Amino acid sequence: MENNLTMSGGGRPTVMVTNDDGIDAPGLRSLVRALVSSNRFHVLVCAPDSEKSAVSHCITWLNAVSAKPVEINGATAFAVSGTPADCTSLGISKALFPSIPDLVISGINMGSNCGYHIVYSGTVAGAREAFFNGIPSVSISYDWVEGRSSVNDFTLAADASLPIICAILAEINKKTYPQNCFLNVDVPTDVVNHKGYRLTKQGKSVVKIGWTQVTSESQGGKMLSTMTMDTNSSQYSEADSLNAKHDHLLFKREAKGSQLETGDTDYCMLQEGYITVSPLGALSHADMDSQAYFKQWLPVVTESFSSAL
Questions:
Q1: Which of 27, 96, 121, 241 is the most exposed place for a label (fewest CB within 10 A)?
Q2: CB atoms near residue 295 (< 10 Å)
């Protein structure tokens, strides 16, 4: 899909916002307020009508999705019954809005999206779907930490993201913005004292997940983000155990530790206090060692198979 700067909002570029935490999430609302109050953008919102965290790039195929108008001051907004990828796809299609946005922003997510967890992220998928269709995009996440973070931090994270958003749109206007990637931005927990912007690459950090058998569906942990699970969020009583049917077993996810790393990666630089900016693509290439291994391995397999015939 070819994208031209529409300047449809009275000479202003059009920005569309989506997310995976839902249209009422404080991260999205803070971002929209920042965009609207800057008076620089024509703002559209097309976001899930409920939380869709960690759904990755799932799309709705068999059923129709609904889009309900929502009142958000200064923006044209719809709550959609689908996934983040659905929301982006619908929002850029011209079926819902009369024009194609110049930039799609997905976020601000409640929790970081770094390392391998980018694959799980519905927030990142919202930006990736725009990238698939040739529209510049950026996903933004705030490294929410229970007990340290507050809702006000989303406002600070939105303000800290505005320079990047404005810079992207300036490059789009000059037709110098690269078409072969999209950006993933993570804002540190202590956003007030962040150390500046840091170009990083996707690392290999991941939270290891295990499973524990439970007696009630209400014992499942709440997903705070793709990097964090609040396993203490569910309150249940002995009566809830009656919900467990005798003909099946119930299990819940729980964190079993982390695989972390060192170096100039997204997770490491985020923990050091930087706002990390990571260019992402959509292709999943294996590393060079793996490529070299299978280059030797596959001819042997072919020869062995031919000999057995």
A1: 241
A2: 9
Q: Which tokens belong to 275?
A: 């706002």
- pLDDT recorded at residue 239: 45
**Tens digits of residue pLDDT in 284-306:** 888 889 999 999 999 999 887 77
Q: Which residue has the higher pLDDT, 217 or 100?
A: 100
Please tell me the pTM assigned to this model.
0.86
The pLDDT assigned to 302 comes to 84
pLDDT tens digit sequence for 89-134: 999 999 999 999 999 999 999 999 999 999 999 999 999 999 999 9
* Pairing between β-strand 14-18 and β-strand 206-214 as defined by DSSP bridges: unpaired
State the distance between the two ends of the chain, measured CA to CA, in whole angstroms.
48
Query: How many whole angstroms separate alpha carbon 236 and alpha carbon 277?
Result: 41
DSSP, residue by residue, the chain: -------TTTSPPEEEEE-SS-TT-HHHHHHHHHHHHTT--EEEEEEESS--TT-TT----SS---EEEEEETTEEEEEESS-HHHHHHHHTTTSSSSS--SEEEEEEEES---GGGGTT-HHHHHHHHHHHTT--EEEEEE---TTT--THHHHHHHHHHHHHHHHHHHHHHTT-S-SS-EEEEEE-SSGGG---EEE-B----EEEEEEEEES-GGGSPEE--SS-EETT-----GGGGGGS-TTS-EEEEEEEEEE---SSBHHHHHHTT-EEEEEE-S--PPPHHHHHHHHHHHHHHHHHHHHH-
Per-residue pLDDT for 230 more than 80? no
